[in-house]
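Good morning C.,

I know you're traveling, so I'll keep this short. The sequence:
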Amino acid sequence: MSDVLATLSASKPRRLFGLGVLLTLGFGLIYLALARPPSSVGWQIFLIALGALSLVLGEKMRRATLGKVVLTAEGLFDGEGRVLAPIAEITGVDRGPFAMKPSHGFTVRLSTARGRGWAPGLWWRMGYRLGVGGVTPAAQAKVMSEALTVLLMERDG
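The tokens, ready to paste straight into the viewer:
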């Protein structure tokens, strides 16, 4: 990786709020299923499974939000150096109010499908789109999206 142009990491208050919501939902559903079991065993199993899924997603989000997204002249990378979107494959950046994007983030359009990936609270990738943001500060995301736009303008002349 070359020089880092911008970094995007989770905001502590947003991270804690997101984790708190997921963990409260998970424990609440499991408590509800055990303390006040529904009349059907199927519903009880469903509530326990949904609660367990919420707890698993909370742990996945906890781990993911310890990382970061990094912009270099070569493209977007996660904190471990994995390529999220090489600059040669980026065709545009959407950050408007009506763009399908994460909260306080932006979406990157790609020329080739890069496969699916997800770091809850930081980024997601599906097909020709990469969403960056979530529990991140809006100011960091804006700086990163503007720097990426400048890189694309320099690349395209």
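Safe travels,
E.
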